[in-house]
Amino acid sequence: MRRQFLAAAVVAGAFLSNGASAAQTLAPPSLPYVAVHDPQFISAGDATFMNGEDRVIGLMSGRTAKAYPAAILSQHGLVQDRSPKGPIAITW
Predict the structure, then answer these.
(1) Which of 36, 70, 83, 91 has the most neighbouring CB atoms within 10 Å?
(2) What are 41-71's pLDDT values in tens digits?
(3) Dihedral of the CA atoms 39, 42, 77, 83 (nearest 10)?
(4) Which residues contact 25 (CB under 8 A, 6 or more apart)?
(5) Which of 50, 40, 43, 46 is nearest to 71 (CA)?
(6) What does residue 16 show for φ and ψ, rounded to 5 degrees?
(7) Can you give the C-alpha Rg of the chain in angstroms?
(8) How far apart are CA 47 and CA 84, in angstroms?
(9) Which stretches within 16-82 are classed as H helix?
């Protein structure tokens, strides 16, 4: 069985200028987190930042297992990934 863990993602933030005029179209308010899209995975043996007490949300599809660490999910709020049956969303 192959086990994979979500690797830490690089996050880019965005902000609105305080000097926006009324004539400009403002973007909707940003979420308090940045979602992860199409995450990269590492093997369980390479996940040295994890220990036995860490919580994960697990997904098993056929012989492939994926683990989404709660610590990473709590920073990003949402992970959009794919399973063999189609797109999935993981949230914490």
Answers:
(1) 36
(2) 999 899 999 999 999 999 998 888 999 999 9
(3) 50
(4) none
(5) 50
(6) -95, 150
(7) 17
(8) 23
(9) 70-76
